[in-house]
Specification:
alpha/beta; Rossmann fold; two-stranded antiparallel ribbon; 10 strands
Length: 184
C-alpha cells in the first residue's frame, strides 16, 4: 500500500469507523450493524480531501471521462476533491451531483454541474452497503444522458452492494473494504 493510501486509511480508522456491538447502528439501508462508517469527517477534512483527490485521480487519470460525481451529499466532496486535483495536474475533470429528488423550481432536474448529455462520467460514493444510493446515482446520470464509465467507492462495507452495482456498471472498484478498517 502506498503512503497516501496508508494515510487515508489511518484517517478513516481514526475519524470515520465506529464499532458498537452492544448498541448497533441503524444504517441508511434500514439494516442494523455493529459497524458504522461515517466518511464525512474524512471527506470534509483538509488532509482527507487532499488524499482522496490524489488517490482517486490516480485511479482514473487514464480514463477518458469529462466529469465525476454521484448522489449528493456523500459523493460531493469526493467529486470536488478529484475535480480540483485533476485541474492542478493539467487534466481537468468537472464535478456534478445527482440530487435525491428532482428540483421542481429553477431549471429543475436531478443532475447539476458542468455536464451535458453524452459526457463520459465516473460515479463516486463514500460508503456502499446495499448499493441503493449508488444505483440511484447511476440511473440519474444515465437518465440525464451521461455515459457511466466506472464506479469508484471510498469504502465497501462488504454487504453485497458492490456486487449489485458491479452487475450494472462497466467497471467497479473500491479503494477500501470494511475489513481493512477493522484490522488493527
Amino acid at each position: 500500500m502506498d503512503e497516501k493510501k496508508r494515510q487515508l486509511l489511518k484517517l478513516l480508522k481514526e475519524k470515520s469507523y465506529r464499532y458498537s456491538p452492544d448498541k448497533p447502528f441503524k444504517l441508511a439501508s434500514g439494516r442494523e450493524s455493529p459497524y458504522y462508517v461515517d466518511a464525512r469527517p474524512v471527506t470534509h477534512n483538509a488532509q482527507g480531501l487532499f488524499l482522496i483527490g490524489e488517490i482517486f485521480f490516480d485511479l482514473i487519470r487514464d480514463l477518458d471521462v469529462q466529469a465525476i460525481g454521484g448522489l449528493t451529499l456523500g459523493a460531493d466532496p469526493i467529486a470536488h476533491a478529484v475535480a480540483l486535483t485533476s485541474f492542478l495536474k493539467g487534466s481537468p475533470i468537472n464535478a456534478f451531483s445527482v440530487r435525491k429528488e428532482a428540483k421542481t423550481h429553477g431549471t429543475g432536474g436531478l443532475v447539476v454541474g458542468d455536464v451535458k448529455p453524452g459526457d463520459r462520467v465516473m460515479i463516486v460514493e463514500d460508503v456502499i452497503t446495499t448499493g441503493g444510493s449508488t444505483l440511484k446515482a447511476i440511473n440519474g446520470a444515465r437518465d440525464f444522458g451521461l455515459e457511466v464509465v466506472k464506479v469508484l467507492i471510498l469504502v465497501d462495507r462488504e454487504e453485497g452492494g458492490r456486487e449489485r452495482v458491479a452487475a450494472v456498471a462497466p467497471q467497479m472498484q473500491a479503494v477500501f473494504r470494511l475489513s481493512e478498517l477493522k484490522d488493527d
